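User: Assemble these into one structure.

Assistant: Restating your components, then the assembled model:
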Amino acid sequence: MIGRRFVAMLMGAAALGGCVQIETPDKPIEINLNINIKQEIVYKLDGDAKKLIEQNSGIF
Amino acid sequence: MLKLGQPAGWATAALAVTAAVALAVPSAMAQRDPAYEAARSAGQIGEQPDGYLGFVTSPTPAVRDMVNDINIKRKAAYTSGAPAGSTVEQFAFVTGCNLIAKTRPGEKYKAPDGRWLTRDSGAPVRDSRCP
């Protein structure tokens, strides 16, 4: 009887002590496209990209 | 001074008129094909961060051919449109940023981690380098 209670207590303690909190990241892991582009080029190309989409709306 | 300045003024005006006409003339590919529009809104195909269309679900032969055809045309447009000092891939990437931003709610797009997401009313998940 005592043995069983002891085991139960031990298990309870183990459950409490062994509680591991895993924090899920709120952002997905980003795997960058294998492309080398500097921010200044991104901004330089942005206007041209918008124009391209406008002028070829059938394929975009 | 004034005589020297005038021809330059004329040239600028002529350029402006040419540009305006070029913008006003509707392109031969001004509208999306109804089949393309349907596949987009059905979520069968979606926009990828690389500036090309991808298959969300296993495509029918018709959808596959249509998307391959559009992607070839996109590649041609990126190739001829890439400004000096940038690569075709870079121009395609920045266009892809814009295309994902322009997706309508319900349409699919590929997040930087490779998942296909459905556009909702909020901002899409895009590459951190997007403008």
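Residues 67 and 88 of chain B are 19 Å apart (CA to CA).
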